[in-house]
Structure formats: C-alpha cells, structure tokens
From TrEMBL:
SUPFAM superfamilies: BAR/IMD domain-like (SSF103657), SH3-domain (SSF50044). Residues 315-374 form the SH3 domain. It is a peripheral membrane protein. Keywords: Cell membrane, Cell projection, Coiled coil, Cytoplasm, Cytoplasmic vesicle, Endocytosis, Lipid-binding, Membrane, SH3 domain. This is Protein kinase C and casein kinase substrate in neurons 1b. It is found in: Cell membrane; Cell projection, Ruffle membrane; Cytoplasmic vesicle membrane. PANTHER family: PROLINE-SERINE-THREONINE PHOSPHATASE INTERACTING PROTEIN 1, PROTEIN KINASE C AND CASEIN KINASE SUBSTRATE IN NEURONS PROTEIN 1.
Length: 374
C-alpha cells in the first residue's frame, strides 16, 4: 500500500485533518453489518426462489387440468379428422409444457434453493452467545487496528482543548499587563503539547491506515465471495427458467406445428363424405323374389341382401371396425380397441354419437368418428 507523504505542521499554523467517515473511530460498523446483511440476503434469495417454484408448480397443475378438460370436450364433440388431431395437439402441447414447468419447479427447489442454503450454512457460523463468528472476527479486527490510533487521538483532543483554553485565557489577560507574561508562558506550553500530540498522531496514522485497510480487505474478500456466489446462483436460475434453450421444450412446439400443418381440409371432407355423405355404401332397392318362393335367393325381409333400415323389427345393423381405442366414460358408453368389430344399430346423432352393439351383446353409445364401415 502506498501511503501519502507526511507533512509536519508549519510554524504558527495548526494543521486541520479532515478524516473521512470510515477512518473515524467506530465508523467501521457499516462494513461489519454487511456480513449480517449477507446472511439475511441469502434468506431473501431462498424465499424468492421458493415463491417462483410455487408459481411454476401451480401453472403446471393448471395446464394439466385445462388440457384434460378440453381433450374430453374435443373428443366428444363433433369435430373430426385431421383438424381434430391438430386441435388435440394443442392439449398435448399443454401437457408437455406442464411437464417442463414441473421440471423448472424441481430445479429451482432441488438445485438453486439447496445450493444457496448449503452455501449460507458453510459461510456463516453461529456462536453460542448469538451472532456470527465472521461478524465478531471483523469487529475485533477493526477494534484492534483502531485502538492505538484512537488512544493518540484522545490525547490530541485533550491537548487541543488545553491549548484553546490557554488561548482564551491569554486573550482575557491581554488587558491586564501584569499577568500577560505568565499567561503567554502557559499558552506556549499548551501549544507545544498540542503540536507534539498532533505530530505523534500523524506518525501513528500510516500504521493505523495499513491495519484498518488490511481488516477492510478481509471483509471485502468475504463479500466478494457472496457477490460472486449470488451471480452464479442467478445464472443457474436463469438457465432453469429459460425454456427456449431446452431441446425438449423446442420439440413441444415442433410437434405442435407438425400436427397443425398436417391438418387437411380436403382429407377431412373426403372422410366425412365417405362416412356420412354420398360416399357411403347404399343397398339400392332391387327386384325381390316373392316370400312364397322358398328357392329364391336372398329370401326374407332383405333389401338387395340387406336389412331395411326402416323396418325396426328387422334391423340388424351395419358392421363397422374401430379405428382407435376408446374407453367409455359413462355407463351407457361402449369400450373397444382399435381393430375390434361391432354392429352399428343407429345413425349418428347431432352430437356425433352412434348406438351400437358389441359381439358380446352389450349395447351402448360410441363416437361415430372412431369407426369405419367394413
């Protein structure tokens, strides 16, 4: 450390010393308090991270609930085909994003929160009588560095006071010629004592400054560790919050875009036409043999080999094959797996449901867009 050059007082001049606050006796308190503040700031940071983790968890739960409710509504609704799959992909996106935000919550609590907690525990040590060991060490270090200089300063203040009192007495005695000589002698001695005390204080000052700066440097190094650690934790938090750098998060939106761009109005219209429009199979009426002719083919109530859909007693239904798995949500709904065959007994209603019968004889409703004619 380079110290300023020492300048002794000039004759007939008292040097005025303008010390900054830090160098004054006892004014190291703010530096010492910073250690306690650092421990409290660790608690604040942990609370901050914990609150954000709760938000991430709540958002993840809300996304999951929203996705589940709307997936059921879309699946039971009248939408069909590739556009339905694109719509359902929005629900899939929500489910995957929910998982990513759950990951964020876990990372904040398991990594960042625990990291700060452990660092605080390793860096601050509680004493039996209260307070932290690091605070006490800094306090004692500053006191030890200030003690010699503070003693010299106290002597200086006493000499200064004596000198000023002598000057005052000299001024009062100036009108009294008989006492003037003795007062002048007292003033001169007080001044010499004052200048000597000031000179001793100035000689002590470089060592005092060196000791004070040494303790202050130690406090700075401790605070540098805390500030560097805080910066490191905040970068970790940023990495955990920034989902744009997460490959799985990017894939969520790649999958969503693919599902939406794969939707085809032409394909859906064609499917609807084949299943509910002109493309449907129709047993057109043809000449039927008389019921009395037992040898005629296709005898009975068939219409061109099929059942008259308007003859309720003769309705046997149309055979269909399941395109997808379906698990009945209500007691009046059927459950089946993709590839299973069943019998459609009634045409699709306005909500997109059909009445059917499984091969085991169970009757119930099922989504019309889950099957195709055989």
């Amino acid at each position: 450390m380079t110290l300023p050059p020492h300048t002794p007082p000039k004759s007939n001049e008292i040097r005025q010393v303008n010390w900054t606050l830090f160098w004054q006796v006892g004014n190291y308190k703010r530096t010492v308090k910073r250690i306690d503040d650092g421990h409290r700031l660790c608690n604040d940071l942990m609370n901050c991270i914990q609150e954000r983790a709760k938000i991430e968890k709540a958002y993840a739960q809300q996304l999951t609930e929203w996705s589940k409710r709307w997936r059921q509504l879309v699946e039971k609704g009248p939408q069909y085909g590739t556009v339905e799959r694109a719509w359902l992909a929005v629900m899939t996106e929500a489910e995957k994003v929910s998982e990513r935000h759950q990951d964020v919550k876990n990372n904040l609590i398991n990594d960042d929160f625990e990291k700060v907690k452990n660092w605080q525990k390793d860096s601050y040590h509680k004493q039996m009588m209260g307070g932290f060991k690091e605070t006490k060490e800094a306090e004692e270090g500053f006191k030890k560095a200030q003690k010699p200089w503070a003693k010299k300063l106290k002597e200086l203040e006493a000499a200064k006071k004596s000198y000023h009192m002598a000057c005052k007495e000299e001024k009062l005695a100036s009108t009294r010629e008989a006492n003037n000589l003795s007062c002048l002698c007292v003033t001169t001695k007080a001044r010499e004592k004052y200048e000597k005390a000031l000179d001793e204080l100035n000689k002590c000052t470089p060592h005092y400054m060196e000791n004070m700066e040494q303790v202050f440097t130690q406090c700075q190094q401790f605070e540098e560790k805390r500030l560097s650690f805080l910066r490191e934790v905040l970068l970790d938090v940023k990495c955990h919050l920034n989902l744009t750098d997460n490959e799985r998060y990017v894939m969520v939106y790649n999958d969503l875009e693919h599902a939406i761009t794969s939707a085809s109005a032409q394909e859906d219209l064609k499917w609807f036409s084949n299943n509910h429009g002109p493309g449907m199979h129709m047993n057109w009426p043809q000449f039927e043999w008389s019921d009395e002719d037992q040898t005629a083919p296709n005898s009975g109530n068939d219409t061109n080999g099929g059942t008259n859909p308007f003859d309720e007693d003769a309705v046997k239904g149309v055979r269909v094959r399941a395109l997808y798995d379906y698990d009945g949500q209500e007691q009046d709904e059927l459950s089946f797996r993709a590839g299973d065959e069943l019998t459609k007994l009634e045409e699709e209603d306005e909500q997109g449901w059909c009445k059917g019968r499984l091969d085991n004889g169970q009757l119930g409703l099922y989504p019309a867009n889950y099957v195709e004619p055989i």
